[in-house]
Amino acid sequence: MGGLPFEFSYVLKFIPKLASTLNVTLLIVGGSLLTGLLAGLLAALPRLYRIPVLEQLSKAYASFFRGTPILIQLFLFYYGLPEVLKWIGIDVSKTPVLVFVILTYGLHTGAYVSETIRASILAVDRGQVEAAYSIGMRGHQAFARIVAPQALAIAVPVFSNMILALLKDTSLAFTLGVMEMTGKAQTLASLTQHFFEAYLALAFVYFVLAFVLEKLLLHGEKRLLRHERGSEAAASKFRLRRRVSLRQLAAELKGGTPS
Amino acid sequence: MNLDPSFIWTAFLELLPAVPTTLILTLVSVVCGLSAGTALALLRYFRVPVLGRLAAGYVTVIRGTPMLTHLLLIYAGLPLLIDGLSQQYGWGWNSAQIPMIGFAFLSFSVTASAYGSEVIRSGLLSVNRGQLEAALSVGMTTAQALRRIVFPQALAASVPNLSNFVIGMMHASTLAFVVSVVDINAQAEIVASTNWKFFEAFLAAAAIFWGLTIVLERISALVERRINLYNRGGVA
User: Fold this and answer.
1) b/e for B118-131, b at 16 or more Cβ within 10 A?
2) Are residues A40 and A16 located together in one domain of the fold?
3) What percentage of residues in chain B have a pLDDT greater than 70?
4) Segment B163-194, tens digit of pLDDT
5) How far is B134 from chain A (nearest CA, A)?
6) Residues A14 and A37 in one domain
7) Does the beta-carbon distance from B185 to A72 stay under 8 Å?
8) Does A12 lie in the same domain as A37?
9) Where are the alpha helices (DSSP H) in A96-194?
10) Are residues A221 and A188 in the same domain?
11) Which of A188, B62, B182, B199 is deepest in the core (most CB within 10 A)?
12) What is the rounded CA–CA span in Å between residue A80 and residue A258?
């Protein structure tokens, strides 16, 4: 990659130009997050209620989307989905690429969402449900009042991580020709031959975006979990029993997955 | 353009020669990442002045930007730097002599070092600080205490994280196509476009990655069981 000598002024010039494509990046993040939450919830239900066949399907779904690179999934959906849909007589050849991109990222995120939902519900101590039953709550009451709030407390930080990973993953959408930030950066780079400056600006915008998003999510977490405040001391009583499962959970969900 | 099931098998066979490239990319980035990551994690674990803060900043920046930008920055920036230095000091070589895969190795290792350091650090933090203090109190040096007491327990706690990390790096190595390294993904693209059978080729590539991932998960489960033997039962 040749390119012209480094000039810092180009970095400053590129930043606003990249920021102008921010809406595409955020659209992908937002769209796939909604798709992912829906898909994840649907996939988590059969595993929580142990519905025969559907449970296996849901397991295979999660395993596939967590077991293959997102880049391969993007290509697979972009090339494969139109063909599969053609068999059942639906023509999607005029559908914008962005739809495929959002769908792929959505299903990818959905796999992680389903695992998170399942794992955080299972992480709530069984005794909590029994205690709820013992004071006369019904199944759905025990779930809505006792299990769900505690599961949420476990799941929310994981969701935040997932959203940040999703943001960074959207940088791959350029491979299908979507003009989001990375695609824009590459265009700017080859137009001006200032490659390093363009990528520096790109990294800067992503970093600021990730930083702001992280702060917002942390703020949201605190608001959402304000009922948990002061429960640290009480929780520590249960820590011994929950330690192993929480450790496995954190590993399973957060992981050291680069994106 | 209809699905040609037999071509999935053909593509599968054509993709196999690219598997070693993916594995070597993964191996190099994991090994370099964990070595550098351990150093970074220790700097933060012992709260080394200045360096500890720098390590934390490095990890934040790397984890706050997509891996693709690291690769692009190194690919575009390293030649600028090397050629500049080479001209100034009259070295007999320039950046054109760096093999393409070198950029991938370097950039993936940079990314891996940040994520790896988080894996190591969470392992270190899961070991009670009292363990280190007890080891020091019986006269071990810090190095001995780390090697004999802290690391074995930290390792046992971080096996699931480690396996996620390795799998993540393997999936991330598909980015190598950006610097024209032919890994499984790039090979799938070649097979796809020469035969005009995109769906089949990427189905085969997905199958290979899925298989590799499952194998890695199985291995990690075995290792986890073996390494946690010391932790079995008792009054833990």
Assistant:
1) bbbbbbbebbeeee
2) no
3) 97
4) 999 999 999 999 999 998 999 999 999 998 88
5) 22
6) no
7) yes
8) no
9) 97-122, 126-134, 139-141, 148-169, 181-192
10) yes
11) B199
12) 26
Cβ pair A63:B210 closer than 8 A = yes
Pick the closest to residue A113 from A78, A67, A75, A160 (CA basis): A160
Q: Within this chain, do residues A71 and A189 fall inside the same structural domain, yes or no? A: no
Is A255 in contact with B165 (Cβ distance < 8 A)? yes
pTM for the whole structure: 0.87
* Residue of B4, B74, B98, B164 to mutate when probing chain A, most A C-beta within 10 A: B164
Query: Best of A11, A28, A76 to disrupt the B interface by mutation (most B CBs within 10 Å)?
Result: A76
> Do A189 and A224 share a domain, yes or no?
yes
- Find the mean pLDDT for residues B16-29: 94
Tell me the residue range of the domain where A168 lies. 23-178+245-253
Structure tokens at A121: 């519900």
Of B2, B112, B188, the CB nearest to A258: B112
Q: How many CB pairs under 8 A join A and B?
A: 147
Same domain, A190 and A102: no
Name residues of chain A where pLDDT drops below 50.
1, 233-247, 251, 254-255
A94 in a domain, yes or no?
Answer: yes
Mind listing the pLDDT tens digit for each residue in B36-49? 999 999 999 999 99
Report the complex ipTM: 0.87
> The tokens of A147 are what?
């299990």
Pick from A70, A210, A251: which is nearest to B161 by CB? A251
Q: What is the model's pLDDT at position B102? A: 92
Of B69, B185, B202, the CB nearest to A203: B69
Domain ranges of chain B: 19-180
A26-65 residue pLDDT tens: 999 999 999 999 999 999 999 988 899 999 999 999 999 9
**CA pair distance A158, A165, nearest whole angstrom:** 11
| Residue B141, φ and ψ in degrees, nearest 5 | -80, 165
User: Taking CA B106 as the corner, what is the angle to CA B100 and CA B110, rounded to the nearest 5 degrees?
Assistant: 150
CATH number, domain containing residue A106 = 1.10.3720.10
Domain B19-180 top-level CATH class = mainly alpha
Q: Are A120 and A151 in contact (CB under 8 A)?
A: yes
- The span from the CA of B13 to the CA of B109, in Å, is 29
Tell me the one-letter amino acid at B170: M
Judge contact between B114 and B59, C-beta under 8 A. Answer: yes
